[in-house]
Amino acid sequence: MSTETGESAVAVEQEKLESVEPAQLVSAEQVGEYLKNHPDFFVEHTALLDELVLPHQRGTAVSLVERQVQQLRQRKNALEHQLHQLLHIARDNERIARQMHHFAVELLHVGNRDELIAMVREQALRQFRADEFVLLLIDEHNGVLDLRGSTKVLPADAPLLAPFAPLLHKGNPQCGRISAEQRQLLFNDEDLQSSAVIPLSAGRSLGLLGLASLDADHFAPDKGGLFLQQLGELVSAALARSQEACAEEMAD
User: Fold this and answer.
1) 131 and 240 share one domain
2) Could you give the CA distance from residue 199 to residue 24 in angstroms, rounded to a whole number?
3) Long-range CB contacts (< 8 A, 24+ apart) of 218-224?
4) Residue 7 domain-assigned?
5) How many domains does the chain have?
6) Is 70 exceeded by the pLDDT of residue 24?
7) pTM above the 0.90 mark?
8) Which of 213, 223, 173, 220 is nearest to 193 (CA)?
């Protein structure tokens, strides 16, 4: 074919392209939609895979298949990481459930209040891996005020209880950071970053059980409070029983 003939053919093709209306042109969105609706397109047109390239982050070119494999590998790694996290949470929950059962059994054999408080302290620190423990008891009868050590006693009408009034009313554990007033009463260590405060009640408010950690995420608000709730219920029942036994002894 002569040079003139070749130039003529090119001119004809150019005229055809110029005559195409803009509405007739296929957009990138239409191509993408078509490929989504026909995922087997490249199975029937395998030759195109040799021509398609995607720019790599480092400037080199990778084929579409290689890019797909890379994305699948990244998703696989992310899912494996998520699975490992779930397994870790499940194992930790199983550990706490076993220890909670053991704790409930031991409570049945506790004698006096001092033994009860010592057991609660030991079990709470171990089960929930806390760095600090405090038990605040409400004395409705004798008006006792004792803020020494990790076991504190307050009369029911003490103004120091005011910051905890909403918590005592709701009856649900509170996790996260606590206010300065609450910290002043419960924990003396300013390095503690997160805490769990559990209301204790058995027909009436018995007090509060506080746990704290140096880790800001240990008692995070978004973590479940089921086991903390169960701990509060067990301790509340044991305290109520201990107080009733003490009252009976004093009556005799």
Assistant:
1) yes
2) 71
3) 218/129, 218/130, 218/193, 218/194, 219/130, 219/175, 219/176, 219/194, 219/195, 220/175, 220/176, 220/194, 221/175, 221/176, 223/175
4) no
5) 2
6) no
7) no
8) 213
